[in-house]
Design goal:
The protein is α+β, with helices and mostly antiparallel strands. It is built from 10 helices and 18 strands. Helix 5 packs across helix 6.
């Protein structure tokens, strides 16, 4: 029973956490949208109200009388102005005081005359200490002069201006002009609202909405969790228990049956799970036999790799007793076994055969075709004849029964070691690179013949060449220039020549190592798609001296 309740409790707690997060996110989103909207609506309402008060007061006050109070000033013996007031003045003062006390958001209610650098007060609601008296002068707040200028004209602009003043605090002000009998503005009514009070009103409204959302979310969460536990959590708990049982007893061929009846997708899932368990047990039985077979094939491929590599000459130096030349070769297959091969052998004491070939295709079939082609080329070359005659014979033999339509590109050369003269045939293979003593490697470009085993009755071209002491010949398969990096760019022949000429005078082994390092640096982490096979031959002449 304990193992059944544990997953249910875990999933249920997750549902509670999700519900809480959902509630918080909803509150945040609601606040993000409601707060600006409430602020905008509150400011809009305050604008209308403030201007209503200012406009009412402006129409109530006689502009000529208002200016008259300032003009009535007389001066005492100390030069201080003394202003005369009457019943009308005090009636307006009472009106301002009463209006300010009735509207909670109103902080200041006053009348003044604007001048260039200051304002002169006529009335100021004096419900609190610090109210300005008739004739008091005061400088503008920052931005106040511009705001008053918008109102002090015959067509006033209706706009609230926000001030944050050291004396009056954070306020929002509305201004409206008072006109004289000629219709000219002579004074201004100012209404200052408390910005703190406005923000407090907005916060209270948003807080009320947030509390409402929390209450609704809690109700929905409670009802939803109850339904989810009955319809989802408990059935999933059974599925979880069954899954653990299946995993723990996967090697015991144990049947798992689920008693879930929810008449929905969960019931279908339970049925599918039971079927999956049965299918999995059958699959595991088959997998055991497949794995054993795969291991057997892998072992055989490893043996095939060793057999293929053993067919290629790998002991270097190849002919330690011969001073006329030095050579080195390497082959790195793209798969366990490849289709590339190289070969070199003495036909007699004075003639050396060099072979570089690439079978179409990859894997075991290509390797078998490669073994056949290599054997035919060497056996026919040892009999005698030119490279073209050798390839003519091999072509006819490989075309017989070639149902898979494999073919092989071949570069075959026979070199007279005493003179350095040679003859080569190229059956669809890459152009060799040649370096003359003291120079750089360059490609030797000439017309190719078709690949061996492509067509019956082909007559292969051949051409002569001559090597001098210190000359080096480099042959390779297309896996070298077509090595590809992660950007799908090719190594190409330009980079190959650059790699060869990096240490062009090096011995054949060092030369191949340099080229392979350049290929690896270019390819990086990209996989190898083709076999990489190379052979370098340096001719030193009969005297064994080279001219590098």
């Amino acid at each position: 029973m304990k193992t059944k309740e544990k997953p249910q409790k875990h999933l249920g707690s997750r549902l509670i956490v999700i519900s809480v997060w959902f509630s918080l996110i909803t509150i945040i989103i609601a606040t993000a949208f409601v707060a600006p909207y409430k602020y905008y609506k509150e400011m809009e309402e305050c604008t209308d109200t403030a201007y209503a008060y200012a406009c009412t007061a402006a129409k109530l006050i006689d502009g000529d009388k208002a200016i008259g109070y300032l003009d009535s000033a007389s001066f005492d013996k100390n030069g201080q102005p003394i202003y005369s007031t009457d019943e009308y003045y005090h009636r307006i003062q009472t009106y301002l005081n009463t209006t300010q006390s009735e509207y909670d958001l109103m902080k200041y209610f006053y009348v003044f005359v604007p001048y260039e650098d200051e304002v002169v007060y006529i009335w100021d609601a004096d419900n609190e200490s610090g109210a300005c008296q008739l004739g008091d002068r005061e400088g503008y707040m920052i931005g106040g002069k511009e705001a008053v200028a918008k109102a002090f004209n015959s067509d006033p602009i209706k706009v609230l201006t926000i001030f944050n003043d050291e004396t009056y605090g954070n306020i929002v002000s509305a201004y409206y002009p008072i006109y004289n009998h000629d219709g000219k503005p002579v004074a201004v009514v100012g209404v200052d609202l408390s910005m703190e009070s406005i923000i407090s009103t907005v916060v209270r409204n948003v807080l009320f909405i947030d509390i409402f959302i929390v209450i609704i979310t809690l109700i929905v969460m409670a009802v939803g969790n109850l339904m989810i536990r009955r319809r989802l959590v408990q059935p999933i708990g059974k599925l979880n228990t069954a899954t653990k049982s299946m995993v723990e007893n996967i090697d015991r061929d144990q049947h798992v049956d689920l008693d879930i009846h929810t008449n929905d997708e969960l019931e279908e899932l339970a049925a599918s799970f039971s079927k999956m368990n049965a299918d999995l047990r059958d699959y595991l039985k088959k997998l055991e036999s497949v794995t054993a077979e795969k291991e057997r094939i892998s072992a055989e491929l490893n043996i095939a790799t060793q057999i293929q590599l053993s067919m290629l000459p790998r002991d270097f130096p190849a002919f330690p007793d011969r001073q006329e030349f030095e050579l080195f070769a390497s082959m790195d297959p793209a798969k366990e076994v490849g289709g590339d091969f190289y070969d070199f052998f003495l036909i007699d004491d004075d003639h050396l055969a060099l072979v570089m070939a690439d079978v179409s295709g990859k894997g075991v079939p290509a390797a078998l075709f490669m073994a056949n082609a290599k054997t035919l080329i060497k056996n026919r070359a040892l009999v005698g004849g030119s490279p073209a005659q050798i390839l003519d014979y091999v072509n006819e033999k490989l075309c017989e029964g070639n149902d898979l339509q494999f073919f092989v590109t071949v570069w075959l050369a026979i070199i007279d070691l005493s003179t350095g003269k040679g003859m080569a045939a190229n059956a669809g293979h890459e152009h060799p690179a040649l370096r003359h003593a003291g120079g750089d490697f360059e490609l030797v470009v000439y017309k190719h013949s078709p690949g061996v085993a492509m067509f019956e009755g082909v007559r292969f071209r051949e051409h002569t060449f001559e090597l001098h002491p210190g000359d080096t010949l480099f042959v390779y398969t297309d896996g070298v220039p077509e090595a590809t990096d992660s950007k799908n760019e090719l190594f190409n022949n330009e980079k190959l020549l650059a790699a060869l000429n990096k240490e062009s005078a090096a011995n054949p082994e060092t030369l191949l190592q340099t080229v392979r390092k350049e290929i690896d640096a270019f390819v990086g982490e990209a996989p190898q798609f083709d076999d990489i096979t190379m052979l370098a031959f340096r001719y030193d002449g009969t005297a064994g001296t080279s001219q590098n």
